[in-house]
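Box 3.1 A note on notation
Throughout this textbook, protein chains are presented in two layers. The first layer is the amino acid sequence; the second is a token string describing backbone geometry. Keep the layers aligned when reading.
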Amino acid sequence: MTADHRPTGPGMLSPAAFPTVAIPLYDPERSSPEAIREWFADSCPDGTTPSREPGSGVTMLPLGEVITAVRMSARLVHAAAGTEDPEELAAYLAETLRGPVIHDAAGDGRPYYVLTPHRDREWLLPADAAHLTAGTWLAIPDLDQRGPRAAHWVTPPRYPGDLCRIDHVCEFILQGLRGMAPAAAEEGDR
């Protein structure tokens, strides 16, 4: 019998420890793909612009003062969600993280990227969950890229300003670490 390692919901970590910026309310008139692309472009640090790779289906977005990302290993994400099934995983990520998630199915280690608001605090979580900030460029797939190959959206942004709350992301990471612990203990016993 396996233990259920899924988070029990928001609030397990204090929001005071992981503050987030205010996220705009949903505005159906501003939720078009064009509005989301404009928001990505407007979020770039001063002096930078997104770089479109012709024919690649991705735009390179510089991270910075508005948008950052957390890169999580596939094994961490699968351990947190308790599944590797793409449909179950997508539903779980949408429910738990409540914001945009990219999966690079062709990347080294098949990482997931969770888009988050900028934060000035030190990142204290392990290498399985690296915080990507200013100076990092992230491949943002076209909004209609839904996988399963290459970089694609598991959960696309729903509107401009749609980001995952950092406290939800940290809860998810801790849940994944707890889910990975039994496998690590088994490897240590060998």
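The longest strand covers residues 67-72. The helical segments are 33-42, 74-81, 86-97, 166-189.
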